[in-house]
Design goal:
mainly alpha
Length: 86
């Protein structure tokens, strides 16, 4: 069987028995950095929450009530591809 080091060079994800989660994550990050990658973290709204749904509904109602809503919606529809065509 190949050594853990040989496996880590050939696979993106490797489970090395005897290592805890923190050690495996640290090893994975080390390998990725060696390959020229760097980690980033992105925080996005949780679209599953009731507060997100309420805010989306509020903003949609404001846009729909705006005097230029019809003109803007016509533009969006003109530049959008139908879902069936994709």
């Amino acid at each position: 069987m190949p050594s853990p080091a040989a496996l880590s060079r050939s696979l993106l994800h490797v489970t090395i028995w005897g290592m805890g989660v923190k050690e495996r994550v640290a090893e994975h990050r080390r390998r990725m950095r060696e390959r020229g990658f760097r980690p980033i973290q992105i925080w996005v709204p949780d679209v599953r929450t009731p507060s997100f749904a309420a805010e989306a509904a509020r903003q949609s109602a404001m846009i729909a009530a705006h005097p230029s809503a019809s003109e803007e919606q016509s533009f969006v529809e003109a530049v959008s591809a139908p879902w069936d065509d994709e």
